[in-house]
Amino acid sequence: MEAEKDFFTAEGYIKGFMKVLVDYSPKLISALIILFIGIYAIRFINNLVKRIMIKRDLDPTLSKFLADILIWVLRVLLFVTFISKLGIETSSFVAILGAAGLAIGMSLQGSLSNFAGGMLIILFKPFRVGDTIEAQGVNGTVKEIQIFVTKLLTANNQIIFVPNGVLSNGVITNFSLEGNRRADLVFTLSYDTNIKEAKDIVMKVLQSHPKVLQTPVPSVSVKDLTDNAIHLAIRPWSKNEDFGAVSSDVLEQCKTTFDEAGIIIQPFTREGSKK
Length: 275
What we know:
alpha+beta, three-stranded antiparallel beta sheet, about 55% helix
């Protein structure tokens, strides 16, 4: 009875706490040592794997994706080892984790679909890091394919994150898959225009521009004859990186040359505005 009274006193609490601390401290210290060593080991393994993949010229997209998956798998294993060393039963913990995982999985179906979408993108490679694509209403250069999202850099230097789920299930236009790209430009000219003269002017502009490719051959043709104008289609080819500059230069040079030749560019008129 005297021992029980001592236990419920402040001194008894302290003695009991110190006894538990002394008995439990070896497990706690060893668990913390494993945790710190594991953290540094994961960093070392991750860097080592990255160097190996770079040395073997593995696709950068696949390398980054595999490295992300590897580091999360190692973190989970380290966490299970850490709690096991503390004396927590891993079997019951795994059962709890499985039940929690099911509940979380049902509430995070969108995230799981994004993960699956990332796997599909890696496997089928509709685009890679460095490609310029258009998808889900955005246009940009692929900077990184992460586990759940793809990171795009737009022409005005904005970063856009597109979920992999909708990206893998939608229409993707890859402008970098082929080395060259064709611009589709249109001039609306007056009916007083000599079509042959206008086409000759455009061809001279296309043939003299240093960034317009001559193979495939650029073309100029009449696209349409509307009620008030001739639509002249201009189709120059360029390398992907020169596409924007070529489109702008050709439009500007054709406009300047048309003005010098007295060729009138017909303003666009909406059908509803005609009386």
